[in-house]
Amino acid sequence: MPSIKDLKKRIGTVKNTQQTTRAMKMVSAAKLRRAQEAVQNQRPYAKRILNLIQQLAPTIEISENSRADGSFSRIINQRMVEEDVLSSDSQRKVLLVLVTSDRGLCGGFNSSVIKSAQRWISGHSDKNCSVELAFVGKKGYDFFKNRKVKVAANFQELTGKVTFKKAKKLSEALVDRFMKSEFSEIKFIFNEFKNAVFQEVTVDEFLPLMVSPKKKDDTPPREGDAILDYLVKPSSAQVFQKLIEKNFAIQVFRILLESQAGEHGARMSAMENATKNASEMIRKLTLQYNKQRQASITKELLEIIAGSESQKC
User: Fold this and answer.
1) Where are the domains of the chain?
2) Quick one: pLDDT at residue 160?
């Protein structure tokens, strides 16, 4: 049984820890407000630019000559035609980009992404699918670096505070490797921010950009299809190319913001739970301390009384 001195020391240690967790909770709460506003502002823009690409894609002509061209937009256009999608019997080279945090103390934020990546790899590891990993954040890289997985890249320089400049640099690196045919698919695995206490692990299809191919002129419109006729200047192809160039950086920026907000929310919740657990531990230790202190006082009183009675005799 610990002594009174040990219990007093332990109570002091837990109180110091509680002060730290309470301060970390307040810091994460302040950061969460800013991160949440950034995510909410970015989501409509990212969604709208994808909608515009979907609307313009059917108006773009994709000829055999244009496929031979190495321009950025036409390489992406080549992927959007149904017959260009990789068949099930061809070799798939998939790059999974894991977005985790640099620090811990955020509950299951990192472990949920890592476990989802492991499940995805297990479910797609066959002779027709080769999977490599890339990392944004230390925790994911630290977990997988000593395991039997292929590590394609570790974007350590892009960690820390999320900025559009970092997102653009990451998107350019990924698109460049995709254009060089190093990978046939690129996917992101990250925590999508829902609210302060809940984040949902999401597997996002980054590349190829799957949009509807151009319909033939003789294809009758389906029931419920909206027939919209826009006048696009300078041309649909030029506008489409500019949208494609912006889209990837915008989508990466949104993903990084989602992960950042989720991290702050997870850390705030974890620190709140830690603070509550510390309060409960302090209560139990204080009760034990008081009991032992009372027992010690009672023992001393009995010894004094016994000594006084022995002197009377």
Assistant:
1) 32-82+93-212+229-266
2) 80
Q: What is the 3-state secondary structure (H, E, C) of the chain?
A: CCCHHHHHHHHHHHHHHHHHHHHHHHHHHHHHHHHHHHHHHHHHHHHHHHHHHHHHHHHCCCCHHHHHCCCHHHHHHHHHCHHHCCCCCCCEEEEEEEECCCCCCCCCHHHHHHHHHHHHHHHHCECCEEEEEEEECHHHHHHHCCCCCEEEEECHHHCCCCCHHHHHHHHHHHHHHHHCCCCCEEEEEEEEEEECCEEEEEEEEEECCCCCCCCCCCCCCCCCCCCCCCCCCCCHHHHHHHHHHHHHHHHHHHHHHHHHHHHHHHHHHHHHHHHHHHHHHHHHHHHHHHHHHHHHHHHHHHHHHHHHHHHHC
236: β partners: none
Q: Token pair of 300, please?
A: 């001393």
Q: pLDDT for 2-14, tens place per residue?
A: 788 889 999 999 9
Whole-number pLDDT of residue 119: 92
Average pLDDT estimate for 15-40 = 93
- Condensed to tens digits (0 to 9), the pLDDT of residues 32-77 reads 999 999 999 999 999 999 888 877 777 765 443 343 344 444 445 4
Q: Domain 32-82+93-212+229-266, what fold?
A: Pyruvate Kinase; Chain: A, domain 1 (3.40.1380)
Q: How far apart are CA 15 and CA 59, in angstroms?
A: 66
